[in-house]
Amino acid sequence: MTSPRIAVVSAGLGEPSSTKLLADRLRDATLAALTAHGQHAEVVDVTLRPLAQDIASHMLTHNPSEALDAAIGEVIDAEAIIAVTPTFNQSYSGLFKSFFDVIEEGQLASIPTALGATGGTARHSMVMDTAMRPMFAYLKAQVVPTGVFAASEDWGTASGLDRRIAREGQELADLMVAMPRRREADPFDAESDSFVSFEQMLGHA
């Protein structure tokens, strides 16, 4: 049995990036909570900054590059998603939105998902409820109750950021355990019980 995979999507624009830092912290909290459940997960990092041109090109041509196609595949095939964006004008970044716009309708349905956002001040914290949750509700993802917004002043202070990160990681791990994503067997997979080889069919003739 293979370990479940968590796709960590971060849309930070800088290097280094507080958005990527928050995504990594949410990843670590989720893995720790899964360990407490006696489970392990693999992690796939999907950093959108290097894919910016590919995403823009795909929106114009509807022809994804190999790199973008691989990134989309990692997200839609994951057992859980952690998605983190920087905040601009109390909304997600254009890069973040554009990436999820090129994912086909229904491909994120029922996937346990944790959301995070970063911004200069706490004034942008409503982005979680006014922009991110509605988008992922439309995409039919299973979003955990807690969302973590990290303002610049939250880092390295007693702001409660660590507590919120731990709570969201716990919620995502609990949801992964309670609602594991189940996949239908591929009828063309030779290892599937339902697969009948050409040689077997000849033998039954």
Determine the strand fraction and express it as a percent band.
Answer: 15-25%
Would you give the CATH topology?
Rossmann fold
> Number of helical runs?
7
What is the architecture at the second tier of CATH? 3-Layer(aba) Sandwich
Helix/strand order, N-terminal first: EHEHHEEHEHEEHH
State the helicity in percent bands: 40-55%
Low-confidence stretches: 184-199
**Terminal-residue CA separation:** 35 Å
Structural class: alpha/beta
Number of domains as seen in the coordinates: 1
Which whole number gives the mean pLDDT? Answer: 88
Total strand segments? 7
The biggest beta sheet reads: 7 strands, mixed
CATH homology-level superfamily: Flavodoxin domain
Q: Rg to the nearest angstrom? A: 19 Å
The CATH class designation is Alpha Beta
Coarse shape: globular
In short:
It is built from seven helices and seven strands.
